Every structure is written in C-alpha cells, then in structure tokens.
Amino acid sequence: MPKEQLKQQRKSEVRKMDEANSYEEQRRRQIEQNKRKLDELRVHKLSAAVRQAAAKPMQAKLVMPRNPRLDAPTRRSGRIASLLEQPDYRVRKANGDIKTESPDPVPVYATDEERAYAFTKAEQLNGQLGSDHPTFIKPMSHGSAKKLRHLNIPVHFRQYLPVHDETMVLVDEANNEFDVFYRISHDHRMHLNGWRAYSAYHELADGDCLVFQQIERRKFKVYIVRASSYNKNDH
Predict the structure, then answer these.
(1) Which has fewest Cβ within 10 Å: 1, 210, 215, 223?
(2) How far apart are the first and last CA of the chain?
C-alpha cells in the first residue's frame, strides 16, 4: 500500500476516534446536566415518598356500632296493632309536605229578615237602657265580625270619647272585661283596635247587632243581639 494512502487511512481513523470521543464527552456532559436538574427539583425524593406511601397498608374504615333500640320495632298494644291502617286525609303541597294552615271556612251570611229582626231588637234594648249613659248601635257585617282587626265608632259619638289614643275596656253581659285600644286615625276616624279577639271570643256573625253603652269614660257595656235568634222566636 502506498504511503500516501496509509496516511489518509490513519487520518480517517483518527478523525473517527475524535468524533467518538467528542460524542461520549457530549453525552457525559448531558447526563451530568440532567442529574443537576433532578437534584434541584428533588424528584428522586418525591418518588421515594410516593413509593413509601404506596407501601403502607390502608387503615380500616371505622364503623360506629348501631343502637339496638333504633333497630327494634315500635311496640304497640294488641288493640291498636289489630286496627286497620287509617287513610290520610291531610292536604299536601306539591312537594309532599303537609299543609299546616287550615282553609278559611265558607262564610255564612244572614238573610234580610234576620238582619232586620236583630236591628229591631237592638233598638228596643237601646230604648230600655235609658238616657243616663250614651249608647250607639253597631250592626255586624261578615267583615266586622270575622276579619277586621278594628271596629269603627260612629262619628256622632265623638263628643263622649277621649281626644287622645287610650286603652278602653269592653264589658260583656257576663261581666267579662276585654281591653281594646281606642285610636284616632289621621283622617279623624275613631277605631277600637284589638276587636278581632273580642269578636272571636263571642263568636259574632254576620247580621248580629251590638248595643254599646258607655258606663264610664273609658268603659263600654256591650249587649249582643244574635241574628240567628230570628229562627228561634215567633215573629
């Protein structure tokens, strides 16, 4: 082989070795650089922690013991247990909840004859009471008997009443006393607030007629003439 060709071959081998050494050096540097990055990120420590956690046995779930009283059936007497299950007539809402409020009862209205009878009897009673104490007659409508929280006092009775708001007393025929609040509104009308409780207690109804007798400045005697008594008496 000519010398010149040997030189070329050796140069080629040297070049290949240099390239191989250069590649190995570059690879070594890359590995070291990756190790430094892993150390900075502490990935190896995180991996070790995950392995340790996976190796630990899982703790058993705690189960609270049941109260034997809750599992026991409801005790019933033999008489009740033998009864058939009763139907549930309670009104329920759309979501199944039971409605607690009761529906308003159907209003009962007095006839014209019953109204006239009660008013006539109230006028007769008013005449028998005499003139020693001022009086006024108050017929009851369905609203004033069942719904209104206050009762209007006739305007002509203003001269006998206080000029300021005050507590007054209503005395029924059994001498039971009921406190109401006498109030003068912004339009100068006179009211007895708290009337609904008195009306409900005495079960006032449409067509009834009341006679108010002012026995003291802040006290009324109240007489009730029932419209329903029209059907219990001869006319």
Answers:
(1) 1
(2) 161
